[in-house]
Amino acid sequence: MIIDAHCDALYKMWKYELPFESSEHLQVNYQKWMDSPVKIQCFAIFVPPEVPEEAQFSAALKMANLFYEQIIDPYDHIKLIRTSSDIETLKKGEKGAMLTLEGCHVIGSDLYKLKTLLRLGVKAVGLTWNQANAVCDGIEEQRGAGLSSFGYEVVKLLNEEKVWTDVSHLSYQGFWDVIDVAAFPMASHSNSIALASHKRNLDEHQIQQLIKNEAWIGVTFVPDFLNDEKEATYLDVLGHIAYYISVGAEDCLGIGSDFDGTSEFVRGLFDPTDYPAFYQELLHRWPGDVVEKITSQNFIKKFPC
Prior knowledge:
Layout: E1 2-4, H1 9-16, H2 30-34, E2 38-45, H3 56-72, E3 78-80, H4 84-88, E4 95-102, H5 111-119, E5 122-126, H6 149-160, E6 164-166, H7 172-181, E7 185-187, H8 204-212, E8 216-219, H9 223-226, H10 234-246, E9 253-255, H11 275-285, H12 288-302
Helix pairs in contact: 1-3
């Protein structure tokens, strides 16, 4: 069983009007998902920054609507995941779909917009994408500021609602501010800067703090986050997993592929149908119980409610 904590299929469905069931332009579509060992797939609401500010929340709602109309409602065997009980009660042949948010720019400075998204089922909230918003600065914002006063209100709400606070894409100062106050921190799709120098990756201090705070960390398949070369393979993904385990993150680690979120692809991990071979590669390197932790059990044990 595999749980994948991050994909951007909703964004591509929204932008290009693609059908979820069988679009060949989606890395994660219905057919590929059903032909894979992915038991639970997380679907991110990501509104690109070029969308005018006044239209961003509407775009987020349209993606949430696509999630229900094309992924949840048409299929009796695809269940909405909102609680740990929803995961535990999935039957053989059933799959789970979970809604997440990638970037609080869509809510502006309106906490009620975030409350609306949480009521629609969002269970993990990335506070920023790469730029600044009313909550915090993103990793590419030159200023590098941390949480705003409104940002602290946002994290407080996520704590109260038992929702993951996602530090992927966050500024360095923002990361440490979140660590101080978040009850349920996670890094949904972030690799190690020790192996790839991209600023989006986590350094050793951040990794150790996430371990200390019993957070969840998803290894991602974006080539730029895997190495400093032009191409990446599944071996680079295995390298990051090995690194995380070597520094003590065995009980925190998982998968956050970022399928449909990048135009560059990892050889051997193009879409979910490549997971069976990848799973066997994991078993060649680590004991079965460790592989189960990485592929599903850590996610389940750390699920906020």
